[in-house]
Specification:
Its main location: cytoplasm. The protein has 311 residues and is α+β, with helices and mostly antiparallel strands. It has seven helices and eight strands, in the order H-E-H-E-E-E-E-E-E-H-H-H-H-E-H.
Length: 311
């Protein structure tokens, strides 16, 4: 978007809320291209033909609420507020409004779960240009937000998941080592130890570099002693209050575990979450890099009416 564009609304109205328009929803149709005025005109012809058929049957185009914000364009039932369609802005590739009678508004958006594109057509009661400008402003703000925060937030989330996976792996290794220690404590003689080491591939490798300065110092007869080594300093243990629980913190701080929330997912779940984060980031990057195009031609209802008898 050009920075000199004069937008319709204040940025806060789209960043912190949404703009709503009451329009008639003529329908949506799958298209084979993400943009193009001819694509839009072809869809409008289909919608006009369907409108004539429904009118003959006594049906009218449903009235809907079209809400626009930095989070996307949403089509709601005006009474129940049930979401009929919802499209994030980075998936919207094309917008067009009728420059002649100011009523028709359309946009093309990519489906969330496939590479299909759909064109949505509305009768906007003389405010088609304003709706187009509002979508453009919302797209511009959403792109800026992605560059400044959203992309970084997704990367931080991915790094957190990688840390979570590493902690899970370390915890699993720790549990395995704890189990081995318990097993070793239950062994009775050397033959049991040798058998356990062999079964668990825990044999010790001989150190090929035995002639080290530390080794010479320890093997020096002048430094051998039968008395136990003396500690460098003595620390008196804290004496817990007899009335306090044995599990309570003597400082009253409670348990502290910075990774207490990191072990709630399995590594398989974490891998899936990392994959989803990568897909989300790629989807945003692809959508915003493609940009949003606007139609610049007239497509009046009379010209596109398939039942119009004009030559």
């Amino acid at each position: 978007m050009r920075s000199q564009t004069k937008w319709v609304h204040t940025p806060e109205s789209l960043l912190q809320g949404h703009i709503a328009y009451n329009v008639k929803f003529l329908g949506e149709s799958e298209v084979d291209q993400p943009k193009g005025i001819e694509i839009v005109k072809d869809v409008i012809r289909k919608m006009k033909f369907n409108k004539h058929i429904k009118k003959a049957e006594g049906q009218k185009p449903p009235k809907v609420e079209l809400t626009i914000s930095v989070d996307g364009v949403t089509i709601l039932d005006p009474k129940t507020k049930i979401i009929l369609h919802q499209n994030p802005l980075h998936r919207i590739s094309y917008c067009a409004d009728d420059k002649s009678d100011k009523r028709m508004f359309t946009f093309i958006a990519k489906a969330a779960d496939s590479n299909k594109h759909f064109c949505y057509v509305f009768d906007s009661e003389k405010c088609a240009k304003e709706i187009t400008m509002t979508v453009g402003q919302a797209f511009d703000l959403a792109y800026r937000r992605f560059v400044e925060t959203t992309g970084k937030d997704i990367d931080v989330r991915k790094q957190f998941l990688l840390l979570q996976k590493k902690v899970n792996t370390l915890q699993q290794e720790n549990e395995t080592l704890k189990k081995r220690i318990v097993d070793l404590e239950n062994l009775k003689d050397k033959s049991d130890v040798d058998f356990y080491k062999s079964a668990n591939n825990a044999g010790l490798q001989a150190n090929s570099k035995k002639q080290t300065s530390n080794g010479d110092f320890l093997n020096d007869p002048s430094h051998r002693s039968n008395s136990p080594p003396k500690p460098l300093f003595v620390v008196n243990p804290l004496i817990a209050d007899s009335g306090a629980s044995s599990n309570s913190d003597p400082f009253g701080m409670g348990d502290f575990n910075p990774f207490s929330t990191l072990n709630t997912k399995s590594n398989q779940d974490i891998d899936m979450a990392i994959n989803n984060a990568d897909k989300e980031l790629l989807d945003l990057q692809t959508g915003f890099s493609r940009g949003l195009c606007f139609g610049a031609e007239d497509f009046s209802l009379d010209d596109l009416d398939p039942l119009n008898q004009k030559s």
